[in-house]
Amino acid sequence: MRDFTLKTYLLLLSALKDNDYQFQTFREFIKNPPYRSVILRHDVDAKKMNSLRTAKLENELGIRGTYYFRIVPESFDKEVIKQIYDMGHEVGYHYEDVSTTALRQKKSVDDIMIAKTAINSFKENLDKLRKIVPVETICMHGSPLSRWDNRLLWKYYDYRHFGIVGEPYFDTDFDEVLYLTDTGRRWNGESVSIRDKVEGKAQGKQRNREQKHPAPFNNFHSTFDIITAARKNSLPDKIMLTVHPQRWDNRPLPWIKELVWQNIKNIGKRIINR
Which end is more exposed in the chain, N or C (fewer Cβ atoms within 10 Å of the end residue's Cβ)? Predict the structure, then answer.
């Protein structure tokens, strides 16, 4: 069975659901985290229609998650955003205003100057999204080809002043929450991730009630590894599951294209990480 298909994604969600995990949006988790939960996060970087497919699948299972949209044609689509929100999912802003501002600058400037310009871009884009649906949480886009980290904004400003209640990289205790992300089209993609990384005690060892010597979570390479761990009840009680819907497709040709393109990108990311 192929990995990164909607069929495999269904198996993953079902395995977690069958083991009594409660799925939450990030906003819900911030306000009322249950004892055993999965924060279901989607970064809509590209192929926006794929997000509609995952949202519908989750809706059929009675699952809600958060979808973070960029303000670019590959991601931003009013009708897609409305449909996903109307299913009960949360919609948030996948901001990249620092990296896009820096790209437009024709001369080198310092952090403060970039932030001053980028915050205006952030407000404009946030308002653009809020004209479609309510937005209470945001999440940075990694922008791997840029040397600028989009989280620089919050060194000089406070996103709470814009009616934002949370940002996953700032408002999640990763000592308590296991972070699982499909960055690099794998679940142990540390070597091919530029900024999609977290640190915390929960990232270390599996809590396996049956084994005296637990294995590290970075042993999860495929989705099937996580499914197996879920069925053995060896995962922590709190998980943030980050998926990029562009990677998940049942159709053979788009699946192969995404596989090839991601492998090419991973080579570049490894070089950058050196």
Answer: C
**Residue 182 CA to chain centroid, in angstroms?**
8
pTM of the predicted model as reported, rounded to 2 decimal places: 0.91
Closest CA to 246 of 47, 12, 34, 14: 47
Q: How far apart are CA 211 and CA 220, in angstroms?
A: 17
Cα–Cα distance measured from residue 15 to residue 1, given in angstroms and rounded to the nearest whole number: 16
Q: What is the pLDDT of residue 197?
A: 64
pLDDT in tens, 248-273: 999 999 999 998 878 887 666 555 55
**Cβ proximity of 198 and 179 under 8 Å:** yes
Distance CA 274, CA 270 (A): 6
Tokens 């002043």 -> residue: 161
DSSP state of 216: B
- The torsion angles phi and psi of 37, rounded to 5 degrees, stand at -150, 160
Question: Do the bridges between strand 66-69 and strand 37-44 make them parallel or antiparallel, or are there none, so unpaired?
Answer: parallel
Residues in the chain: 274
Query: For the chain, percent helix, then strand, then coil, each to nearest 5?
Result: 45, 15, 40
**Longest CA pairwise span in the chain (Å):** 59
Distances (CA, A) of 224 to 44, 62, 102: 23, 22, 40
CA–CA distance, 119 with 98 (Å, rounded to integer): 8
Read off the amino acid at residue 181: T
